[in-house]
Amino acid sequence: MGASAERVTEHLRQDVLGGFFPPGTRLTEASLVERYGTSRVPVREALRALAGEGFVDLRPNAGARVAEVPVDDLADLYAVRCVVEEITASRCARRVADGADGLVGELTQIVDAGFAALEAGDPVLGAELNTRFHSGIARLSGAQSMAMVLRRVSERIQWAYATTVPQQGQRAWTEHRRIVAAIATGDEAKAGREMLKHVQTSGRSFRTR
User: Fold this and answer.
1) Between residues 80 and 189, which one has the greater pLDDT?
2) Residue 188: alpha-carbon gap to chain centroid
3) Helix, strand or coil, per DSSP, at residue 101
4) First CA to last CA across the chain, in angstroms?
5) Contacts of residue 181, Cβ cutoff 8 Å, sequence gap at least 6
6) 137-165: b or e for each residue (b if 16 or more CB lie within 10 Å)?
7) What does each C-alpha distance from 135 to 20, 76, 89, 151, 200 come to in angstroms?
């Protein structure tokens, strides 16, 4: 794949993950050429690449559409998240107890930006900030193995989150603020519990859509 096709693939992937192109949206070559300022060949390569990743449905004589979020896969992803993110939140609290209180400020900034995105009605930015919040906790926890696992599922989680921001955005960011508050106390068990409750609630909301 050439550099131009890689660039288009990345931009299109982020537009799908962020909810700019919701599931079921028809993707025409002409509209994508105009949006990404390229020719048809890189667009075709990008569509094929994302079809291989499961984000785009390509059907003969029917064109391309954004795929539906695989709800069955999400149940498995949330099971993984329950384990991984309880650990990373607890580790962040442990770091705070050991004196690394600067991480609380970084997480608070993300939460504040998340509420601002809600007020601005920007679901694409909201989804990006949601991913940044959870990946930030994983990174700041210092648990490299957990961060690696979370990165593998983050794109699917971001995709699903973007499709439900209007339904659960306020709840999710309120819970994010509680998680940061728990981390700030340095109490590992409390931080882990708050994160676990958050992930479990998010998982239930997807199963009942």
Assistant:
1) 189
2) 24
3) coil
4) 37
5) none
6) bbbbbebeebbebbeebbbbbbbbbbbbb
7) 21, 18, 11, 7, 17
For CATH 1.10.10.10, the residue range(s) in the chain are 3-66
Question: By the 8 A CB rule, do 90 and 192 touch?
Answer: yes
Estimate to the nearest angstrom the gap between the alpha carbon of 64 and the chain centroid. Answer: 23
Taking a C-beta distance cutoff of 8 angstroms, is the pair 125, 117 a contact? yes
Element (H, E) at 6: helix 3-17
- For residue 180, give Cα distances in angstroms to 50, 103, 110, 166, 175: 35, 10, 10, 22, 9
80-89, 119-128, 171-180: the lowest-pLDDT one:
119-128
- The amino acid at residue 72 is D
Q: What is the pLDDT of residue 30?
A: 94
Q: For 23-43, write each residue's pLDDT tens digit.
A: 899 999 999 999 999 999 999
What is the CATH number assigned to the segment(s) 71-207? Answer: 1.20.120.530
Give CATH 1.20.120.530 domain extents, the chain.
71-207
Residue at token pair 């209180």: 101
Whose structure tokens read 């961060």? 147
Among 61-65, 89-93, 130-134, 161-165, which stretch is predicted with the lowest mean pLDDT? Answer: 161-165
- Thinking of the domain 3-66, which architecture would CATH place it in? Orthogonal Bundle (1.10)
Q: Is 20 helix (H, G, I), strand (E, B) or coil?
A: coil
Determine the Cα–Cα distance for residues 117 and 90; give it in Å rounded to an integer.
Answer: 27
